[in-house]
Amino acid sequence: MGNRSETSPATAALTLRNVTKRFDGASGQVTALEDITLDVREGEFLAIVGPSGCGKSTLLSLLAGLEQTNEGTINLGDQPVEAPGRDRLVMFQQDALFPWLNVLENVLFGLRLKPDLTEAERLESARYYLNLVGLGNKEKARPHELSGGMRQRVALARSLAPNPRVLLMDEPFSALDALTREQLYGDIQEIFTKRKKTIVLVTHNIREAVCLGDRVVLFSPNPGRVQQVFDVDLPRPRRLNDPSLANLAAEVTAALTSHPAK
Amino acid sequence: MASKLPRPVIPTLVAILLLGGWEWYVRSGRVSEVLFPAPSHVLQWFWDSLLSGELLAATWVTMRRLIIGFAIGAALGVPLGALCARVRWVRDTLGVLALGLQTLPSVCWVPLALLWFGIREEAVLFVVVMGTLWAVVLAVQESVLNVPPLYLRAAQTMGSNGWHLWSRVIFPAALPGVLSGMKQGWAFAWRSLMAAEIFVVIVTGFGLGSLLNAGRELLRMDQVMGVMAVVMIVGLLADLIFFSPIETWLRRSRGLER
Ligand SMILES: Nc1ncnc2c1ncn2[C@@H]1O[C@H](COP(=O)(O)OP(=O)(O)OP(=O)(O)O)[C@@H](O)[C@H]1O
Ligand SMILES: [Mg+2]
Fold this sequence. Notes:
Chain A is an alpha/beta fold. Chain A has helices at residues 56-64, 103-111, 119-132, 148-160, 178-195, 206-212, 243-258, and strands spanning 12-25, 28-41, 45-49, 71-76, 79-80, 88-91, 166-170, 198-202, 215-220, 225-231. In chain A, 44% of the residues are buried. In chain B, α3 (54-86) runs antiparallel to α4 (88-103), α3 crosses α6 and α9 runs antiparallel to α10. In chain B, 34% of the residues are buried.
């Protein structure tokens, strides 16, 4: 199955070759990722699942160019990824909204960095995505005035609004209630198919991974490695309660639990 | 029962009691009125010098020096502090120097200032700038270094870098720390200005410190105490009118209020 994670460079948006990442922590050296070879295809929705601490967030930081690999290479198209750029936007696991800006200004932050838009277009786009996440009436609120789930939705709007080529999302739905979450699954799939984006989604929720991903990559921990790659050949839009989706999720869960814990 | 009284009642009573006691003690002739004037005398001096314009003129001279000196100190301190935070070797040199110089009481700059600038306005300004600068440099350096990396990472992946990152993310994030540094710088500037004005009789302007020192030379204790009170009040007002409201607004708008 390991071979399936490689494709020809022409159709790959992101190519990782033998990527290893180590950290020098307080408790000695940690190998967060070891020998990862993986492709994210252009226009693909890739879901990454795996136990806590297996290097999922680290992988996103590497793809974003916020961290550098110790070994191996990462390319975006045919360019090596060396620094952060507007083409690879990250929605972080922790809430990274700016407390000195209100909700609307937060969403506008990324849009204002796109010189080809007029101010009116930026405003329109910011409001569109705020409405999408159901927070159109909270424009003027400061982040600390929102609940955790609302903040996460603002963060989601902020990362969708600039319409980046590659969107890297780290557990974007973890703080949401089931209803909002399911509604957003629908919206994300719609945006994904309409706008032909490349999305890498990290999640703990296997159902979510199977519902959203074209492929689901299962990581194993200590050190972080690709354990298995699953293809999800289900038609979109997918619904969370689809039985064939549930079957596949069960398969992934089985693989996850079968891994011998070290 | 005490909790039913409005909060200012007890402090007011205590103040009246203290001042009344003081007044009575001096009038009873137990101390020399020259060395220990009664509150009413101090108040009398205050009123007279207010009417003669002397007090306002001195306050104006002092405030002008303070504001100009503080502005120069802050204007130099913010970019230098940012540079310390940004560049390792600047931090290891200028940053360490600032740490040392900040512990130096600003009066210590007076002899140097006099030798360099002579008995001139510049000497006073120099002392004020030295009093302000290092506190601001250190506060800016510290608060820039303490900006949560997550904000920087988030901004960078949205395409922010260079000057945009500094002006839109680093400075806003560091602002509360920078402001408390400014406040501290202001307090230091105030102290150093008084020191300079007492030690240096400047021909170009007669400030509050000079007025205080003149009171000593004329053996006018009412003037000495009166000026001390004015110095205190000006310091308090600056905090009350300027720094506190900004700080409160900043904290409240970011949900930092306890
Ligand atoms: N800056 C760092 N310094 C030291 N160690 C780090 C650092 N960042 C991550 N690690 C280590 O790397 C490993 C992978 O961390 P990572 O955050 O990528 O895990 P994760 O898969 O995202 O986990 P979770 O699902 O809990 O978010 C962990 O063992 C962690 O302790
Ligand atoms: Mg993580």
